[in-house]
């Protein structure tokens, strides 16, 4: 499309290298750091060549950290498990509740449906603390504070609007004629929904699932307010761990690596859907 | 709409008209429940914001109408919060837009290298902002942080990043840029690649200079995408909590006391529920206006994209 001069190529290459360094170097640096002992980390100038060690990961996974002053208990693996439980169940629940609702909003144009869809969307952009602070008091009274079920319920605020709006767009794109033809053959609406609509909307469902999982995994403020240490996900747990462990930098780096690996791996594995979901349904590639 | 009428006709002809009518409500019931789940605490927040309500002094609790708000608006520290939040939003969205647009233009052509690069550049966006802050805390550590080391090498021997009031805003803005520029990039790149080709081919045939093509063709056609992406980022940026809380908890001093961090500390450090709720209501009013503009813009763009597809 555009003519490329040699100079243009060099400028473009240099700029892209700088961009790549800015965005990828931090990940690489923390990754390398997680395989270093504290002495190696503190060496100046920073060392590029070192003997990789797994002791940081070992300490995190075994849950015991040996320091000069004694043994420190680490709950980090527990946090990691909580993240898995919270993100997976929230997304599963949202899919179960959200896909039928998305179908209803797309197929049956009804007033209440529009209102619900827009309320959910506009609260998606409201300050989370506005709802969370009063909710903490209600949760206390209902016995839902610091429970998985309470948290999974609140996580619907992140996952449900996303699934609803992305999947709804895909349902709207399916030609109704296909569904009618199937219905005229004598199939009920439920069979039409599960055999025609859902398979056709699969890319949208995949994109919404991936994106809502990542958002749920990365959420920080919900569990900060509604859970204590034993139910907190890695985002909150890692921060608490930093405060508790103080100068165990190698372990901090290892905890960062463990916290981000699931989302990074998922993103790379399913990148096709990622771009689709991230462009908010505004662009279909 | 024609399709609507058609659906109606088929529905009326079905065997169970009652079921047909109830079905959409049944299917959307869960979403409705979640909505109620949000609206009740939202109502409570409004109610709290009209009360003198401090957990430390339960006896003084009472209804005071808009006193929390008038107290906020006459308090310089609240205006500091407004100022910092707006500056944070302005800097982050501004730089992310410029950088995101630049990268999108660099990666516009669909080559294998560009595609791999655009996927790799998405990685920071997949990292939780709170965890990203931890990474940057490690990198800016004065004892071993690679960024402190590099800053020292270029002459800033005692650059203290987020721990100095003069550079704290710069540091958190930098982290925000690191995390969210990929979002701008991906949306603008998708937009660029979805643009019709004819105007560009015509310009090329006529030998129109590249700068002219960019400012007169590319930029105007990309504007709807730019507006949508910027509004979305503004909505998130003005409410930023994770990055700032994880980095400095609003410090040093009150340097980074943005809306949500202020409200959080007001509630959990000073136990002042009423004032905290009032601060969040002010923020909500801002986001409400922004989100209405955003949603309209986004739906229009979506319609347009669907028209082309």
Relevant terms:
heterodimer; A: 285 residues; mainly alpha; MetI-like fold; two-stranded antiparallel ribbon; 14 helices; 2 strands; 3% strand; B: 309 residues; 76% helix; globular; disordered N terminus
| Structural domain tally of chain A | 2
What's the SSE pattern of chain A?
HHHEEHHHHHHHHHHH
Measured distance between first and last alpha carbons of chain A: 19 Å
Write down the oligomeric state: heterodimer
Helix percent of chain A reads over 70%
Q: What are the segments of chain B in which pLDDT stays under 50 over at least 5 consecutive residues?
A: 1-14
- CATH class designation of chain B: Mainly Alpha
**What ranges of chain A have pLDDT less than 50 throughout 5 or more consecutive residues?**
none
Within the largest sheet of chain B, what's the order of strands?
Answer: 1-2
Short description:
The complex is a heterodimer of chains A (285) and B (309). The model of chain A has no long low-confidence stretch (mean pLDDT 87).
Your description of this structure?
- The complex is a heterodimer of chains A (285) and B (309).
- Chain A is mainly α and 285 residues long.
- Chain A folds into two domains: 6-73, no CATH class; 76-278, MetI-like fold (Orthogonal Bundle).
- Chain A has helices at residues 6-33, 38-42, 55-62, 76-107, 111-124, 128-142, 148-173, 176-184, 189-200, 202-218, 221-226, 234-245, 249-269, 271-278; strands at residues 64-67, 70-73.
- Chain A has a two-stranded antiparallel ribbon with strand order 1-2.
- In chain A, β1 and β2 (70-73) form a beta hairpin.
- In chain A, α4 (76-107) packs antiparallel against α10 (202-218).
- The longest helix of chain A has 32 residues, at 76-107.
- The model of chain A has no long low-confidence stretch (mean pLDDT 87).
- With 309 residues, chain B is mostly helical.
- Chain B has one domain: MetI-like fold.
- Chain B contains 14 helices and two strands; from the N terminus they run ααββαααααααααααα.
- Chain B has helices at 2-13, 17-49, 67-73, 76-106, 112-120, 123-126, 129-139, 146-153, 165-194, 198-205, 210-237, 242-248, 259-268, 273-308, and strands at residues 51-52, 62-63.
- In chain B, strands 1-2 form a two-stranded antiparallel ribbon.
- In chain B, α7 (129-139) packs across α9 (165-194), α11 (210-237) packs antiparallel against α14 (273-308) and α13 packs antiparallel against α14.
- The two termini of chain B are 20 Å apart.
- Chains A and B meet through α1, α4, α5, α6 and α7 of A and α1, α2, α4, α5 and α6 of B.
């Amino acid at each position: 499309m555009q003519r490329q001069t040699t100079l243009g190529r060099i400028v473009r290459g240099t700029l892209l290298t700088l961009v790549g360094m800015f965005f990828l170097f931090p990940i690489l640096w923390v990754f390398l750091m997680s395989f270093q002992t504290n002495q190696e980390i503190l060496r100046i100038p920073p060392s590029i060549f070192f003997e990789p060690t797994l002791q940081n990961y070992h300490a995190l996974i075994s849950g015991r950290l040996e320091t000069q002053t004694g043994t420190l208990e680490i709950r980090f693996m527990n946090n990691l498990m909580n993240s898995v439980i919270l993100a997976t169940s929230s997304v599963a629940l949202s899919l179960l509740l959200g896909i039928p609702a998305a179908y209803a909003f797309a197929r049956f144009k009804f007033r209440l449906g529009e209102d619900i869809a827009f309320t959910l969307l506009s609260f998606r952009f409201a300050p989370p603390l506005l709802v969370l602070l009063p909710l903490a008091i209600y949760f206390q009274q209902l016995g839902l504070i610091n429970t998985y079920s309470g948290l999974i319920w609140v996580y619907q605020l992140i996952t449900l609007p996303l699934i609803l709006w992305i999947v709804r767009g895909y349902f709207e794109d399916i030609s109704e004629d296909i569904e009618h033809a199937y219905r005229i053959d004598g199939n009920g609406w439920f069979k039409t929904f599960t055999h025609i609509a859902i398979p056709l909307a699969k890319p949208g469902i995949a994109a919404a699932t991936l994106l809502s999982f990542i958002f749920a995994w990365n959420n920080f403020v919900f569990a900060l307010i509604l859970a204590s240490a034993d139910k907190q996900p890695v985002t909150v747990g890692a921060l608490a761990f930093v405060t508790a462990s103080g100068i165990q930098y190698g372990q901090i780096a290892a905890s960062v690596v463990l916290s981000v690996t699931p989302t990074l791996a998922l993103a790379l594995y399913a990148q096709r859907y990622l771009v689709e979901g991230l462009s908010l349904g505004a662009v279909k590639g | 709409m024609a399709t609507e009428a058609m659906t109606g006709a088929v529905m009326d002809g079905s065997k169970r008209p009652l079921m047909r009518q109830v079905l959409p409500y049944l299917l959307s019931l869960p979403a409705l429940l979640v909505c109620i789940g949000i609206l009740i605490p939202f109502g409570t927040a409004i109610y709290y914001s009209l009360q003198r309500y401090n957990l430390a002094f339960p006896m003084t609790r009472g209804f005071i109408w808009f006193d929390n708000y008038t107290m906020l608006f006459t308090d310089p520290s609240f205006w500091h919060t407004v100022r910092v939040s707006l500056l944070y939003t302005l800097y982050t969205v501004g730089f992310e837009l410029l950088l995101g647009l630049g990268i999108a233009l660099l990666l516009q052509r669909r080559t294998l290298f560009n595609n791999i690069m655009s996927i790799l550049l998405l990685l920071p966006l997949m990292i939780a902002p709170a965890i990203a802050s931890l990474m940057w805390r490690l990198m800016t550590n004065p004892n071993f942080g690679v960024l402190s080391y590099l800053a020292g090498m270029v002459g800033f021997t005692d650059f203290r990043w987020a721990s100095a009031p003069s550079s704290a805003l710069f540091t958190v803005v930098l982290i925000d840029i690191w995390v969210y520029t990929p979002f701008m990039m991906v949306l603008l790149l998708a937009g660029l690649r979805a643009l019709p080709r004819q105007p560009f081919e015509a310009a090329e045939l006529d030998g129109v200079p590249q700068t002219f093509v960019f400012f007169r063709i590319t930029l105007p056609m990309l504007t709807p995408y730019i507006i949508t992406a910027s509004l979305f980022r503004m909505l998130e940026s003005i409410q930023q909590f994770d990055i700032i809380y994880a980095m400095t908890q609003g410090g040093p001093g009150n340097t980074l006391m943005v809306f949500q961090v202020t409200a959080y500390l007001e509630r959990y450090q000073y136990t002042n529920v009423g004032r905290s709720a009032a601060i969040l209501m002010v923020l909500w009013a801002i986001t409400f206006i922004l989100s209405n503009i955003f949603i309209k813009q986004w739906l229009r763009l979506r319609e347009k994209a669907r028209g082309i597809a």
